[in-house]
Specification:
265 residues, alpha/beta, Rossmann fold, 2 domains, 4-stranded antiparallel beta sheet, 9 helices, 28% strand
């Protein structure tokens, strides 16, 4: 049994069902990506699992316990989340922003300890942002800023990291930079990575496990070979896709596609 899984999870916004009776396991120590059309519930699923929003029914289990009953700081020591649009860090230096990741470990007035500073410096080193420590976050490029936010998540020292579209608004080089960093964290430190991605080829290239959602339900979950194929993409996105192989990774690759005209699957 996986450390983290859901059972018959349903999440509503007002009276609208976004996630419906969803049961899924998140593999330990792997990279999981969630794909699906806009509005299918990808971000909602991440927010529900990390307790940012409440579920209507069902269970989210971490280490044998319902997360709804976990102490907030205890939960923050187990999982970190980088939202799609992180809160503004205007006026903060890089070091100050990364130090916020130590909040779950602080007591009393929250004075940072030597251990806290050691972890902050380690997170900056791992993400290649140590040279920006005293620079304003506002002065960084998009790729640099995203790495700093990841450093803050690393400073939480959690074994599970959730990221909601971490490559949004980044150019191709910076997208690859961020994804390779997450892959390195997974392979070298066995961090469990769960992220939402729109790019199917990036999902296929970097994920060990892919969850394809549509209308708040799992259409298919499995390896890239099991999910990135003609039939699944037709059902999830209503596209007629041509699938080949990435010549560098041998992973499945969506070469081209057409919209399905007048078909409903």
């Amino acid at each position: 049994m996986a450390r983290l899984y859901t059972e018959n999870l349903s999440v509503h916004y007002d009276k609208t069902a976004i996630i419906q009776d969803l049961t899924i396991e998140i593999p330990d120590g792997k990279i999981t990506t969630i794909i699906g059309p806009n509005g299918c519930g990808k971000s909602t699923l991440l927010k529900a699992i990390t307790r940012i929003i409440k579920s209507k029914s069902g269970s989210i289990i971490l280490d044998g316990k319902h997360i709804s009953k976990e102490d907030t700081k205890a939960l923050a020591r187990k999982m970190a989340i980088l939202p799609q649009t992180p809160d503004s860090a205007s006026g903060l230096s890089v070091g100050e922003l990364v130090s916020y990741g130590r909040f779950p470990y602080q007591k009393g007035f929250g004075k940072l300890t030597k251990k806290d500073y050691d972890v902050i410096n380690w997170a900056l080193e791992v993400t290649g942002t140590q040279e920006f420590k005293y620079r304003s976050v506002d002065a960084l490029s998009g790729g640099q800023r995203q790495r700093v936010w990841i450093a803050m998540a690393l400073a939480q020292e959690t074994e599970i990291i959730f990221l909601d579209e971490p490559t949004t608004y980044l150019d191709m080089a910076h997208q690859l930079e961020v994804l390779e960093l997450l892959q390195k964290l997974n392979t070298e430190q066995q961090r469990t990575i769960v992220m939402v991605l729109h790019d199917l080829n990036q999902a296929a290239r970097f994920a060990d496990f892919i969850i394809a959602l549509k209308d708040g339900k799992v259409v298919k979950a499995g390896s890239s070979e099991e999910v990135i194929n003609h039939d699944v993409l037709k059902q999830v996105f209503q596209i007629d896709a041509e699938i080949g192989r990435d010549p560098r990774t041998n992973k499945p690759m969506c070469i081209t596609y057409n919209l399905l005209q007048g078909e409903f699957v």
